[in-house]
């Protein structure tokens, strides 16, 4: 199964993709996680991307397309994958189509997670992410057992620089302008499923699996 999860920041793409990886063995490909790791490692990719990420702006298409192309060639992605946070522009969607044509491995389904803006702001402003393993928590909805310590690996939990309210609003505006057009793009190909995603993660997970036949 090859899936794309679309939806604004905070719609639950990362949470749902991680669960599909854990339960269904799909390779979770998150361009945001890969870029944050590059920033943490201080690589040239990370140094180039950081300023844009901190401001809530998109990293150039050619950069993220290169990352995804490399990742999709890995053996763990051959059995199926779920793309989280990519594509974000029609240019990226065209590039993805070309890459997958080369692999003879078309996308099976595109799921658009739908949530209201105020839910997104509440989710993201309370979000805390493990600096080591990227596991996600919420100060109120899913707190860690010990404050600011990851249950899974003991790493330090921090607020992402781009999860501050003014940056969240900018990321939502970027989503509306650059990424929302992808709903029509994929609807035209008959692959799009729209899924209400304002409820608890378990409920969304069950609905998502049913929607894609997993
Ligand atoms: P995310 O974790 O998906 O919310 O991504 C965090 C940030 O990484 C975004 O605000 C962008 O700056 C950058 N980013 C992640 N994925 C992409 C992408 N497909 N295209 C451009 N920028 C991206």
Describe this structure in words.
- The protein is an alpha/beta fold and 214 residues long.
- It has one domain (2-116, 167-212): Rossmann fold (3-Layer(aba) Sandwich).
- It is built from 10 helices and 8 strands.
- A 5-stranded parallel sheet has the order 2-3-1-4-8, with helices on both faces.
- The longest helix has 15 residues, at 165-179.
- The termini are close together.
- The relative contact order is 0.19.
- The model has no long low-confidence stretch (mean pLDDT 95).
- The structure holds adenosine monophosphate.
- Adenosine monophosphate binds at residues 9, 31-32, 35, 52-53, 56-59, 64, 85-86, 88, 92, 162, 171.
What's the quick description here?
This protein has a single domain, classed as P-loop containing nucleotide triphosphate hydrolases (Rossmann fold). The protein is 51% helix and 15% strand. The protein contains ten helices and eight strands.
């Amino acid at each position: 199964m090859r899936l794309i999860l679309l939806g604004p920041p905070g719609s639950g793409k990362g949470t749902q993709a991680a669960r599909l990886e854990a339960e269904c063995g799909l390779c979770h490909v998150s361009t945001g996680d890969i870029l944050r790791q590059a920033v943490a490692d201080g690589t040239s990719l990370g140094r180039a991307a950081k300023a844009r990420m901190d401001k809530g702006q998109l990293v150039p298409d050619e950069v993220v397309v290169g990352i995804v192309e490399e990742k999709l060639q890995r053996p763990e992605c051959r059995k199926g994958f779920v793309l989280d946070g990519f594509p974000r522009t029609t240019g990226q969607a065209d590039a993805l189509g070309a890459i997958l044509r080369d692999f003879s491995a078309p996308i099976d389904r595109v799921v658009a997670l739908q949530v209201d803006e105020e839910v997104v702001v509440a989710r993201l402003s309370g979000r805390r992410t493990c600096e080591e393993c990227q596991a996600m928590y919420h100060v109120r909805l899913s707190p860690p057992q010990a404050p600011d310590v990851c249950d899974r690996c003991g790493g330090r939990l921090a607020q992402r620089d781009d999860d501050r309210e003014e940056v969240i609003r900018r990321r939502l505006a970027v989503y509306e302008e650059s990424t929302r057009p992808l709903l029509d793009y994929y609807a035209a190909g008959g692959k799009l499923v729209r899924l209400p995603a304002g409820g608890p993660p378990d409920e969304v997970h069950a609905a998502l699996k049913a929607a894609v036949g997993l």
